[in-house]
């Protein structure tokens, strides 16, 4: 029977429609449902709703179930509605009536809420770890190729000299700001909703501060109504953080597609990292970058998808919220895949070191020549006109020695400062505190 069911059987078409894909998606939540129950039952014993003997047997069997989940030996039976029902069923089958007591003081609503927040924290950590690896590679490449010039573009027209140091470093710094948004999502996820029950609290004297500490949360969602209102909002903010990272990856993937093009020829990759054509033997296609671009564009749509599913819902729980999992859960794997593939590709990138020897890039240096005249005392507007006339007459002579020294320019990338900013944001997550709390819970 369902956790909520009394005597009446639900019509089968209603059952199928309302459960939807929940059984498959709930497998992602299984270990976190056990962690939530481990904390909740310790709290129940603390306030006298479980005896020490009941607590001991419950905790032991919950840990057994947790290890079964970790080992891949857990599944949700077809006749069972969701992961919460499955775990409570297993517990009751194995230890008897003590298993029926673990739901005291909570609703499936706050049980789902805490499962999701624990799961989201775990997924954020994986995304941040992969972002860190990519960031470090970008900084390394920026330093390695800091002196190799390349064309810079505005309006997709040849503009001014850039460098591979600037190109790689720009995306490294972009990830710093992206991580700031992910940190905001982490802070919202890292608040404990457990104890809010169905969104209106409980007549039991629950100790919500205790479960907050046991689960490694930074603080509580204090107001029980707001704890329930956080469903949907948490997902939307998390999706916005993911969308920011995805936007950086999509932009760099587009750059890579252009720069691999034979008309650019700035970068190349080993044959084993590109694909070919069924009829054109010369082709080396940037399929990885194209798929990164498409996947990341899908992720950028995610905040709006979530907003449309939750807009104008009144306070309290609504079954609409169940569908958020179908959009959000697959996006975690997709974003991590994109981060890992970008790392793989960039770790094998080959740089063309002689790009600017092509005469068509001579006009890149027009500003350099203008500035040289200004340094010799010619007013800027006059120098600008002088060089413009020379270009029109075909007498322009580029000055290919680039001397940029200000902060963040070709000759002064400020990569150490960018890394410092990244490390500062990274330290704000406090993953160690969470890891320590969960390990203690499983002891």
Descriptive account of the structure:
With 443 residues, the protein is mainly alpha-helical. The protein is built from 15 helices and six strands. It has helices spanning 12-19, 22-26, 30-46, 52-70, 83-95, 108-144, 164-189, 208-214, 224-260, 287-310, 324-346, 366-375, 380-393, 415-427, 431-442, and strands at residues 149-154, 157-163, 191-192, 219-220, 267-268, 350-351. The strands form three sheets. A two-stranded antiparallel sheet has the order 1-2. Strand 1 (149-154) and strand 2 (157-163) form a beta hairpin. Helix 7 (164-189) packs parallel to helix 14. The longest helix is centred in the N-terminal third of the chain and has 37 residues, at 108-144. The radius of gyration is 28 Å and the shape is elongated. The relative contact order is 0.11. The mean pLDDT is 92.
Quick synopsis:
The chain has 443 residues and is mainly alpha-helical. The protein has helices spanning 12-19, 22-26, 30-46, 52-70, 83-95, 108-144, 164-189, 208-214, 224-260, 287-310, 324-346, 366-375, 380-393, 415-427, 431-442, and strands at residues 149-154, 157-163, 191-192, 219-220, 267-268, 350-351. Helix 8 (208-214) links the parallel strand 3 (191-192) and strand 4 (219-220).
Number of strands: 6
Straight-line N-to-C gap? 32 Å
Strand content: under 5%
Integer-rounded radius of gyration: 28 Å
Q: Trace the largest sheet across and list its strands.
A: 1-2
> Biggest sheet, open or closed, and with what strands and sense?
2 strands, antiparallel
What's the pLDDT, averaged over the residues?
Answer: 92
Q: What is the count of DSSP helices, taking H or I runs of 4+ residues?
A: 15
């Amino acid at each position: 029977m369902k956790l909520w069911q009394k005597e009446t059987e639900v019509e089968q078409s209603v059952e199928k429609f309302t459960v939807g894909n929940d059984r498959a998606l709930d497998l992602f939540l299984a270990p976190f449902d056990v962690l939530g129950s481990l904390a909740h039952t310790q709290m129940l014993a603390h306030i006298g709703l479980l005896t020490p003997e009941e607590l001991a047997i419950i905790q032991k069997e919950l840990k057994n179930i947790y290890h079964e989940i970790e080992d891949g030996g857990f599944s949700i039976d077809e006749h069972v509605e969701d992961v919460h029902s499955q775990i409570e069923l297993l517990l009751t089958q194995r230890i008897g009536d003590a298993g029926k007591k673990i739901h005291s003081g909570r609703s499936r609503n706050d049980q789902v809420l805490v499962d999701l927040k624990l799961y989201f924290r775990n997924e954020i950590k994986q995304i941040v770890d992969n972002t860190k690896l990519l960031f470090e590679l970008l900084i390394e490449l920026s330093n390695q190729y800091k002196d190799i010039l390349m064309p810079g573009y505005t309006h997709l027209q040849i503009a001014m000299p850039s460098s591979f140091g600037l190109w790689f470093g720009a995306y490294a710094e972009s990830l710093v700001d992206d991580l700031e948004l992910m940190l905001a999502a982490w802070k919202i996820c890292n608040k404990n909703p457990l104890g809010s029950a169905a969104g209106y609290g409980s007549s039991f004297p629950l100790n919500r501060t205790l479960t907050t500490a046991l689960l490694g949360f930074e603080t509580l969602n204090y107001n029980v109504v707001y704890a329930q209102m956080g469903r949907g909002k948490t997902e939307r903010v998390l999706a916005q953080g993911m969308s920011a990272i995805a936007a950086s990856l999509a932009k760099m993937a587009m750059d890579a597609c252009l720069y691999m093009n034979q008309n650019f020829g700035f970068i190349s990759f080993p044959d084993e990292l590109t694909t070919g054509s069924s009829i054109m033997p010369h082709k080396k296609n940037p399929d990885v970058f194209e798929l990164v671009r498409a996947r990341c564009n899908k992720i950028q749509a995610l905040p709006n998808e979530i907003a449309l599913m939750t807009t104008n819902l009144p306070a309290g729980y609504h079954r609409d919220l169940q569908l958020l999992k179908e959009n959000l859960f697959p996006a975690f794997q997709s974003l991590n895949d994109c981060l890992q593939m970008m790392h793989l590709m960039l770790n094998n990138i080959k740089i063309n070191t002689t790009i600017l020897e092509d005469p068509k890039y001579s006009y890149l240096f027009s500003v350099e020549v203008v500035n040289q005249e200004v340094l010799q005392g010619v007013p800027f507007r006059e120098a600008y006109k002088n060089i413009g006339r020379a270009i029109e007459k075909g007498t322009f002579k580029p000055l290919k020695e680039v001397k940029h020294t200000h902060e963040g320019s070709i000759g002064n990338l400020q990569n150490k400062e960018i890394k410092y900013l990244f490390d500062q944001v990274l330290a704000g997550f406090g993953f160690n505190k969470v890891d320590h709390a969960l390990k203690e819970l499983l002891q």
